[in-house]
Amino acid sequence: MKLFGPLYDRCRTLAAHPHAPWYLGVISTIESIFFPVPPDVMLAPMALARPRAWWRYALLTTLTSVLGGLIGYALGYFAIEAVMPWIERAGHAGTYASVQDQFVKYGVWIMFVAAFTPIPFKVFTVAGGAAAMPLLPFALASLVGRGMRFFLVAGLIAWGGPRIEPHLRRYIEVLGWVVAVAILGVIAWLQWGP
């Protein structure tokens, strides 16, 4: 089943659009709240198309992702009862409960790990608010974790440039499925692990 190749091709097309930075900002914001597609699929082609602007795209992605994280935090803090049916319908109720336990055990470190890795950041933003995690550590962990991730992705793509694009396109399907399996593994570990 080819899923990630066509998505990558579509994002490459959008990356060349004059409004691409706006699309990237919107995707980065809503991904931290509810959207299932990570902004990396838009960030990477944009950094490839304009390598000199990679750091601006990484900064935009970081800031808008943290903004979305703060919105998710507010949803969790002020409206968890209203958001909980959506979490249950999305199949994240068990993950949400496990994330709550992780906040108790690991505090700010769990936010940093969620921000940096490809696990569903949106679950952690809502859970952080519902757990009443202090806002400043939440925001700082999100900023550092998301910043490290997006600057790393954009920087590597810009550095590798056109010579890595054919390899990226050739293996995008495998990479996409590896990341999807890794995400499912983390969710399973959070739900049924220690």
TrEMBL record:
Keywords: Membrane, Transmembrane, Transmembrane helix. Residues 39-156 form the VTT domain. It comes from the Bacteria. The chain crosses the membrane at residues 20-37, 57-80, 108-132, 138-159, 171-192. GO terms for cellular component: plasma membrane. Pfam families: VTT_dom (PF09335). InterPro entries: DedA_domain, VTT_dom. This is VTT domain-containing protein. It comes from Arenimonas malthae CC-JY-1.
